[in-house]
Fold this sequence. Notes:
By secondary structure, this protein is mostly helical.
Amino acid sequence: MEYLRVCRDEKFDDVVISLKSSDCRVMVEAVRLLVKEMEKEGMDYPLHLGVTERHTMETLENQIRSLIIESLNLEGMSPEEIADDTPLFGEEGLGLDSIDALELGMAVKKRFGVNLSGTTEENRSRFASVKTLADYIRTQKPEA
Length: 144
């Protein structure tokens, strides 16, 4: 906003604001905040928005976070609230239960096409956190 004020004060009106992010939700929120602040100051500059490709590792973790929220209907929660190492099960983490595990397992299999067979203990360790789940998907699908 500081630079926009300088442009306005110097009567330099040939300005286009360019915002870029690799996360669509971040992009939408940034645009909303910027427009709100511009409106407060009577500014009306055109915006150029760009969603950039993110490194594969980050993309997979974000896809998993979104999948958790969508498949388990965790309304009011955003992907940013789930850290890579947050336990998915148990009271110190998201608090998911065995029914959630089944639903999430089916969603993971459908979305990523990975084989989830194994012992209960193996699956428990695979689904311990977003990071462990992403690591497992990468071993099954190297292109993920």
